[in-house]
């Protein structure tokens, strides 16, 4: 029988923090060095340090997810994919996929018919708009499904 704690433990019963911190440092170092290597100008080292500092906490979170045995976390759901929230999210994302197909198709049609609209539009602008639309659509659909099923 494994004991449960708020932060969990590894499969061997040890603290997850040494491994999680090691992964966090590795992620921060790799990203910081990559930015430093590819940065143009004289501020490459500063950019690398800033990116490394900002990426440590997400790297630490990734390390915790990788290292911790889920069964040792107090209050963790045994099969999270079977929860009602996961089902709501699945239904919301399925609907959003179809909305994205329609919106992207109509946008592509409009941009091909009216060339003045696409003159100032870059690919990154279009992808960002799709991501914002998808995030908003999933959020609205999730809340509507939650309200309807509750």
Structure description:
Keywords: Membrane, Transmembrane, Transmembrane helix. It comes from Dermacoccus barathri. The chain crosses the membrane at residues 20-39, 45-68. This is DUF2178 domain-containing protein. The protein starts with 16 loop residues before the first helix and ends with a helix. It is flat, with a radius of gyration of 22 Å. It has two domains: 17-72, no CATH class; 80-149, no CATH class. The model has no long low-confidence stretch (mean pLDDT 88). It contains five helices and no strands. By secondary structure, the chain is an all-alpha fold. The chain has helices at 17-38, 44-67, 84-113, 115-118, 123-149.
Number of helices: 5
Domain module count: 2
In helices, the fraction of residues equals over 70%
Report the principal-axis shape: flat
Q: Which regions are unreliable across 5 or more consecutive residues at pLDDT < 50?
A: none
The strand count comes to 0
First-to-last CA distance: 36 Å
Over the alpha carbons, how many angstroms does the gyration radius reach? 22 Å
- Structural class comes to mainly alpha
State which percent range the strand residues make up: under 5%
In short:
This protein is 71% helix and 0% strand. The protein has five helices and no strands. α1 packs antiparallel against α2.
Which key terms come to mind for this protein?
DUF2178 domain-containing protein; 2 domains; membrane; transmembrane helix; single chain; transmembrane; 5 helices; mainly alpha; 150 residues
How is this fold's topology laid out?
Layout: H1 17-38, H2 44-67, H3 84-113, H4 115-118, H5 123-149
């Amino acid at each position: 029988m494994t004991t449960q704690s708020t932060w969990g433990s590894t499969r061997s019963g040890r603290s997850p923090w040494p491994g999680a911190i090691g992964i966090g440092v590795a992620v921060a170092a790799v990203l910081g060095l990559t930015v430093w290597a590819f940065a143009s100008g004289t501020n490459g080292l500063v950019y690398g340090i800033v990116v490394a500092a900002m990426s440590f906490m997400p790297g630490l979170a990734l390390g915790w997810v990788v290292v911790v045995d889920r069964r040792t976390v107090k209050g963790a759901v045994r099969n999270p994919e079977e929860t009602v929230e996961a089902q709501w999210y699945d239904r919301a994302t399925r609907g959003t996929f179809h909305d994205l197909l329609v919106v992207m198709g109509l946008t592509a049609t409009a941009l091909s018919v009216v060339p003045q609209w696409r003159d100032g539009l870059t690919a990154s602008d279009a992808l960002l708009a799709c991501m914002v639309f998808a995030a908003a659509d999933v959020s609205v659909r999730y809340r509507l499904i939650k309200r309807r099923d509750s």
